[in-house]
Amino acid sequence: MRRCPMSQLLPRPLTPCLPWLRASLAVMLLVWLGGCAGLPEHVERPESRSLADVAGTPLGQLAAARRPSAVAADVSGYALVDSPNMAYSSRLALTQQARRTLDIQYYAIHADASTRELLREVRAAAARGVRVRILLDDFNSTGRNALVMRMAFLPNVEMRMYNPLPGGRGSTVLRAVRSLHDFRRMQHRMHNKLYIADNAWGITGGRNLGDAYFGTAEGSNFVDMDVLAAGPVVRQMSASFDQYWNNPLAYPVQSLISADELQVLREQLLHPAAAANGADAGNAPHPEAAGATAPAADPPPALPDPLDLAALRLIWAPGTFIVDKPFKLVPELNDTFTEDTVVDGMLSLMRDARREALIVSPYFVPGAEMMKVFADMVHRGVRVRVLTNSLASNDAPLAHVGYARYREQLIRLGVELYEMRALRTQHLDRTVFGSGGGGSKASLHSKIFIIDGRIISIGSMNLDLRSQLQNTEVALVIRSATLSRLATERIEDTFDDSAWKMEMTPEGRLLWRAPPQALFEDAHGEPDASWALRFILGILGPLAPDELL
Description:
Elements: H1 5-8, H2 18-33, H3 58-66, E1 76-81, H4 84-97, E2 101-106, H5 113-127, E3 131-137, E4 157-162, H6 172-178, H7 183-187, E5 194-197, E6 201-205, E7 220-223, E8 226-230, H8 233-245, E9 250-252, H9 259-270, H10 272-276, H11 287-290, E10 315-317, E11 319-323, H12 331-334, H13 342-351, E12 356-360, H14 367-379, E13 383-389, H15 397-413, E14 416-420, E15 441-444, E16 448-451, E17 455-459, H16 465-470, E18 474-479, H17 481-497, E19 499-504, E20 510-513, H18 531-540
Parallel strand pairs: 2-3, 3-4, 7-15, 12-13, 13-14
Antiparallel strand pairs: 1-8, 1-10, 2-5, 4-9, 5-6, 6-8, 11-18, 12-16, 14-19, 16-17, 17-18, 19-20
């Protein structure tokens, strides 16, 4: 479950089980009648800011040493993070080499094996005196994932939850039910992704933290791309982090849940039978001793060594970090919120395109305004190519229904539309964008815009109404023909061997056209997706408005 709230509550294929349905409705009714817990009031949020003396750290000195003498002072260095190994090794390198500060901001941090190992290094950084600030959207922090919040009780670590929901941490669904009285606010989520060390080097892009983003998950792994930056643009990223960290919507973990409550939850997850019988969990080790995430059920995965930042090829170019304002998440202000959003910025880039726009958006629900932008581009002779998920590769199938409403119209406009196949691979670093997983299904998760082969944007936003209206998003916009070419080559590799091109037959039917040299064939009717999934989405899809998908 890695999509935003409405898609996360999509039920699994239904079976005729009336007793289960009656019991579920009874539980929901009891929760509703029991009232809705409120959020704490008068919460203390001590303000803090990013590191000012960037040059006084080894990472700052390394960034300065890597800068070519001929480039302007406001130019930064960039490297595409285009494989799961590099995604992990780059974050590991920043963590191990940080000496003063680590600022970590994500929509989701999953308590699984790869994240456990990365957070072990974060704890080690805090132990050697690094100030660690972790800012996490609250929605996914239930069950096992809630145990990540134990990081907040470690020395030198502060952790805040953004736009939290009231209620317990045992179940995402029950917390959502308890918040139905405030459904609009529940839909507004912080989707930003940042990993910054000493205000000198930073990573942003599409990835959250978890096995599926580092290519080690058993079932489905994400095809994703980040960008690693060094230099002045990182200070813009840090300023964005500070803006969210010091916002009233950011609640310190200690104001929401205690260490003892997290310990009880941990024991319930470790020993559910004993917890059900009322066994005492109070004698279990404190988070400082036991580790701050879920216990290791399996041996750690084979993860890469830290990236060699000194040897990494950096491409130096002008760049700007753009970010939505935190008040976008305040429902009472959202109707009158007039500042441009990150998605508005992407639409502006598209309006300025002269030759080509290449778009990668895993969740693609254009809406009327975006459709007008596409029509105008095609009318002006701009070649428009879009890569998105097929139904089978989409981890949020309900979002696919919103996209499917526009699919035929896009094709008739002249947009070149591609859907990624839910391919399987045995090679961790040899599938699209270098991502995927050993023997697992791949799901597109990259968010990339390339305009006229000279401007590239990599960030957290999808080209959909949820990103435009509901979530806060970030994007790093870089004016570099070299970076644009490297990313374009990776995307076109996907067109050549891992995606269908959508066409219309003379009879007016959709055709999924396989690439000429592909190992799969042309198809009709949502290829690789089960009949049950297609049936359920056919029923539920028309009921959901575009902005909630």
